[in-house]
Write a structure and sequence with these properties.
Radius of gyration: 22 Å
Number of helices: 14
Number of strands: 7
Mean pLDDT: 91
Low-confidence stretches: 1-13, 15-21
DNA sequence: GGCCAGGTGAAAC
DNA sequence: GTTTCACATGGC
């Protein structure tokens, strides 16, 4: 009975009440917080939070104290450094493990892309150590990179915040106190049928019509994002580019950051500049060059080079 | 105040 | 097939 009581108290209040009897008629009640056990631990050397959350692959993680808070699935999640690990608390364990790609072997991936001993990449890997590619939800990633077109990362984050606040729902809070202001990403069904006027409050400019087209095509099942997992990367890219506002670059970002196609090599203005200035390679030749130089995980190499190029000008 | 931003689609060559 | 331009907005 007492155990059940304590379990309930822990479940709902995350505290245990310690009752100390001083005498038969007098007692003290002390509350002892019980730390919520982490959902997942990832070695710190494979997960640098500042780099991973700010490298332009995800736009919803916010620094709070010494950690980051965000949303995985419908749940608020907090990441903190804890000794030699990143401790991730909250969320459904299987969803969290998938989102952070817990099974990935980053020693092997980094070793693979560095096989050619390319000096620019070696330097970029050195400065970006701890960067890991996330496996974000397909729909959220698709919308995020539609919004990214001709935009900067700070503003992309702001637009996505307003999108979630306006059309999402409050995230399931952590019982250790993270609450209210975090919202889920709105579903395709919620955005389908909206007008550009409806999206005016999020101030995404000319991209509003693209978001609505994506929502209509996904909600009507004209495009099945889950089914893309079964296709080759080339086939999946072809399907994604059926959506207005999704060209080769946006499709590659979705494939890399959501479908874990680590061979996808998005070519934005930064990476196009890097390829031309450092390697003398023009945009149309980049895919073949990247595969030959960096191998089957060249998308990870792309992200290191992207992070390195940006960090040199900020 | 002007340049630029994790581009794309359409029209003009 | 390649080049050019408009598309909204705001950070720096």
């Amino acid at each position: 009975m007492m155990c059940e009581f304590i379990n309930q108290v822990q479940k709902y209040y995350n505290h245990i009440y310690l009752i100390v009897y001083c005498s038969k008629s007098r007692y003290n009640i002390n509350m002892i917080p019980i730390p919520t056990p982490p959902t997942l631990l990832i070695p710190r050397r494979h997960f640098d939070m500042d780099i991973t959350f700010n490298c332009g692959q995800a736009f919803r993680w916010r620094k709070q104290d010494s950690g980051y808070i965000g949303v995985v699935g419908d749940h608020a999640v907090i990441c903190r450094y804890d000794d030699g690990n990143v401790a991730i608390t909250g969320g459904e364990p299987s969803q969290v493990a998938h989102y952070f790609d817990a099974a990935a072997d980053y020693d092997a991936i980094v070793a693979s892309i560095c096989t050619s001993r390319d000096p620019w990449l070696m330097q970029a890997v050195q400065s970006g150590m701890g960067l890991r590619i996330l496996r974000q939800p397909h729909w959220e990633t698709l919308c995020s990179f539609i919004i990214s077109a001709c935009n900067n990362i700070k503003r992309i984050s702001g637009i996505i915040d307003r999108l979630c606040l306006t059309f999402g729902k409050p995230a399931v809070a952590l019982n250790s106190g993270i609450t209210g202001h975090l919202h889920t990403f709105p579903t395709p069904q919620t955005l389908a049928g909206l007008t550009e006027l409806d999206l005016a409050p999020i101030r995404c400019g000319f991209r509003a019509k693209y978001l609505i087209d994506a929502a209509n095509k996904v909600a009507s099942e004209q495009i099945n994002l889950e089914a893309l997992q079964e296709l080759t990367t080339t086939e999946a890219r072809k399907v994604l580019t059926q959506i207005n506002g999704v060209g080769e670059k946006v499709a590659d970002c979705v494939l890399l950051f959501s479908y874990n196609r680590l061979e996808a090599f998005p070519k934005d203005v930064w990476i196009t500049r890097v390829m031309r200035e450092r390697y003398g390679v023009e945009r149309r030749d980049t895919d073949a060059f990247a595969l030959q130089r960096f191998g089957e995980y060249c998308g990870v190499a792309q992200q290191f080079l992207f992070h390195d190029a940006r960090s040199k000008t900020q």
